[in-house]
Amino acid sequence: MPTLKCPVCGGPVEVPDDAMPGELIDHDCGVTLEVVKRDDGSIELRPFEGVGEDWGE
Amino acid sequence: MGLAKIGMAYMVARWEEKSIASAARKRGADITLIHLSSFHAVIGDRELGGKLPGVVLQRSVSHYVAVSSSLVLESLGLRVVNRGQATAAANDKVWSLALLRAAGIPTPVTGVAFGSEAAGRLADEIGYPVVVKPTNGSWGRMVALADDWEDLRVILEHREYMPQPEMKVHLIQEYVRKPGRDIRVTVVGGRPVAAIYRYSSHWITNTARGGKAEPAPVEGELGELAVRAAEAVGLEIAGVDLFEDPERGYLVNEVNPVPEFKNTVAVTGVDVAAEIVDYLLELARR
Ligand SMILES: [Zn+2]
Fold first, then answer.
1. ipTM reported for the complex, 2 dp
2. B163 alpha carbon to ligand 1 midpoint, in Å?
3. Residue B165 domain boundaries
4. How many CA atoms lie within 13 A of B215 on its CB side?
5. Residue A44 near chain B (CB below 8 Å)
6. Which of B85, B122, B130, B177 is 20 to 30 Å apart from B18, CA to CA?
């Protein structure tokens, strides 16, 4: 399981091996992070901006 | 023959999107993930279309992004499931109810009014209690129940203050006295693959709002009606929501073009993701 750095608090974030772009991870600091694929194929975490509409459970 | 290629367009990778991606890999299919927040395209760019899979599943949680991205992907020459126009029709409750009625499918009595006084007269005609809904939206949000004109007046006043122009369209529906549950039928490629009863003590039955669920029979009248409803709106994949009226039988309330199915899978054991992937592969082979 790769560990990336939270872009908000700098703390470690465990990213599941099967993580897909668009997957959301709630971090301990309270921020919701989105898995994003870079052009080179590697992944990074960004604060999730939402989708501008109500959605989800 | 190489691997069959399919694509999936989406915003947020929920349990459903992950299941679909994993079902595709289990089938040995090559699935291209089109994460829409990182995607852009020039309308009509066939060269880009040639680089993408010929068949793409639409799974955006945002209604607006689902319609726009489906239409753009179609302009690249791709076959999108569901089609953009069908998704647009399904996302608009007036549009979809009109298509359902035109196809002779029983629905709750529903009307539209564009001002408060007219809405009051419409509610009188339908008979209280009435349900007030947004024309676009899901998961039961912004849905209100009015027992009388006093309730309705307060709801409409609140809606009138909202900046969204669609809040000026008042969709008013009879309150169906369903037996504490409604039904969700999942349709894939013209077949009813699974159905669940959703129970709730709240009048909005929706598993997303915490109701419990049980399997429902997918054979016979229920499944057939759900398939007809999906077809009437032009949807190949749909979550069809129905009520049971004590006198009139099944009434189709809504058709959802990007259905969630985590609960359906948990309750029925039907592998909905695999059904979806098989349908996409069938289209890709044509
Ligand atoms: Zn953090």
1. 0.89
2. 34
3. 110-174
4. 11
5. no
6. B85
What's the gap in Å between the CA of B220 and the closest CA on chain A? 30
**Residue A8 burial by CB count (10 A; 0-12/13-18/19+): exposed, middle or buried?**
middle
Final residue before a domain boundary, out of B154, B174, B194:
B174
Distance CA A21, CA A38 (A): 9
Across the 286 residues of chain B, what is the mean pLDDT of every consecutive 10-residue run?
A: 86 97 96 96 98 98 95 98 98 96 98 95 97 75 88 90 82 90 96 94 59 91 98 98 94 96 96 98 94
Assess if residue B137 is contained within a domain: yes
Interface contact B62-A55, CB threshold 8 A: yes
Buried b (16+ CB within 10 A) or exposed e, B24-47: beebebebebbbbbeeeeeeeeee
* Cβ–Cβ < 8 Å for B102, B232: yes
Residue B141: CB atoms within 10 A of its CB come to 15
Nearest Cα residue to B133 out of B122, B210, B187, B125 = B122
Q: Are residues B140 and B226 in the same domain?
A: no
Determine whether the interchain pair B61/A51 forms a contact, defined as Cβ–Cβ distance below 8 Å.
Answer: yes
Residue A7: which CATH number?
A: 2.20.28.160
The conformation of residue B118, written as its DSSP 8-state character, comes to H
Classify residue B262: in a domain, yes or no. yes
Coil, strand or helix: which one is B126? helix
CA distance B192 to B189: 8
Choose among B22, B35, B62: nearest Cβ to A21: B35
Q: Find the A4 Cα to ligand 1 centroid distance in Å.
A: 10
> Smallest Cα–Cα separation from B224: which of B190, B188, B269, B265?
B190
A·B CB contacts under 8 A: 64
- Looking at the domain assignment, is residue B217 inside a domain? yes
